[in-house]
Specification:
The protein is 81% helix and 0% strand. It has 319 residues and is mainly α. It folds into two domains: 1-75 and 178-319, no CATH class; 79-177. The longest helix is centred in the first third of the chain and has 47 residues, at 2-48. Mean pLDDT is 90; it is low at 6-19.
Length: 319
């Protein structure tokens, strides 16, 4: 009986390993290869055209793509570290642009909390992940008392709270998403599809856009936004069997809407921030793109909505 039990356990282990390969390795290998092919073909097109305006952003993606894919190949902890570093730098850009950077106590608290959220994501601590922002806001509201400074307290608390929630907690959902049983498919689809949505909204707007619809971003058109939404839904269905083969058709449609609508909302949120601050970009770290926040603005809104939609309908996070 012991030998039969051992054999059964071996088969179960083999089944788990095979299942993990199907759920995670295949999407990672597929999207890595696809990204390399698309990037190479796009480069040929840009240089043959030639499209001078596109060369600088294109070359920057030669850095961004490895930043995305290498940590994912190394594992969920490496991915969480990468996302945490991006989040900290993004918050730094926000703090400098808003003046919060001069109030170091607030920035230090937010940075520590962002690191804490990254650790929660890396080690699958969902309860703490959900509670930490509440404790964080509680600590932030005590800072005027601890520093004995009431001048600008409302503004500083508000900016620090935005930093923690929007650039820390929302962003950390990208890390936690990789902890799912289908995590790499989820992460890679969400990140790449959101970036495609940004590009397509711009492209369709240039080609077919006639009707502007928001003063926050005057170049956005109804035609470009609608076509980007349709394209994002099409991309979701095209990636169905690779990224989330266990989803029902209607859930694939919801995911397409989250990316197509949420990506544009995220972009507009940051555009509203920049208009209020009177700046064009949050930084100049990424040539042709601006700062970190100018590149991840769409993801910041999409990530938590995507995460909790997937968790509500399919679970799969192992806690």
């Amino acid at each position: 009986m012991d030998s039969i039990s051992a054999i059964a356990q071996s088969f179960n282990l083999l089944e788990l390993i095979t299942d993990n390969i199907n759920k995670n390795f295949i999407p990672l290998a597929f999207y890595s290869g696809l990204a390399a092919i698309v990037y190479s073909l796009l480069g040929i097109f840009i240089w043959l055209k030639p499209l001078e305006i596109a060369k600088k952003p294109y070359l920057t993606w030669a850095i961004l793509l490895p930043v995305i894919f290498i940590p994912l190949w190394l594992g969920s902890v490496a991915w969480a570290i990468a996302i945490t570093l991006v989040s900290i730098y993004g918050f730094k850009e926000f703090a400098r642009s808003t003046g919060l950077y001069e109030h170091r106590a607030y920035c230090i608290v937010v940075d520590v909390l962002i690191i804490g959220l990254g650790l929660c994501a890396a080690f699958n601590q969902y309860g703490l992940f959900m509670a930490l922002p509440i404790w964080g806001i509680a600590v932030i509201t005590t800072l005027p008392i601890l520093t004995n400074q009431s001048k600008g307290a409302i503004q500083n608390i508000s900016l620090a709270a935005i930093g923690l929630i929007y650039f820390g907690w929302f962003m950390a959902h990208i890390s936690f998403l990789s902890q799912s049983w289908y995590g790499l498919g989820y992460v890679l689809f969400m990140v790449l599809a959101t970036q495609f949505n940004d590009a397509l909204a711009f492209l369709w707007g240039k080609l077919f856009g006639k009707t502007t619809w928001t003063e926050i971003s005057p170049k956005k058109t109804v035609e470009g936004s609608v076509l980007a939404l349709v394209s994002s839904n099409a991309i979701a269905f095209l990636n169905w069997q690779i990224a989330f083969p266990h989803f029902q058709w209607w859930l694939v449609g919801i995911i397409g809407l989250i990316v197509g609508i949420g990506g544009q909302i995220g972009d507009l949120v940051m555009s509203a921030f920049k208009r209020d601050l009177g700046i064009k970009d949050f930084g100049a770290l990424l040539p042709g793109h601006g700062g970190i926040l100018d590149r991840i603005d769409s993801l910041l809104w999409v990530a938590p909505v995507f995460f909790h939609t997937v968790r509500f309908f399919h679970g799969g996070f192992g806690y």
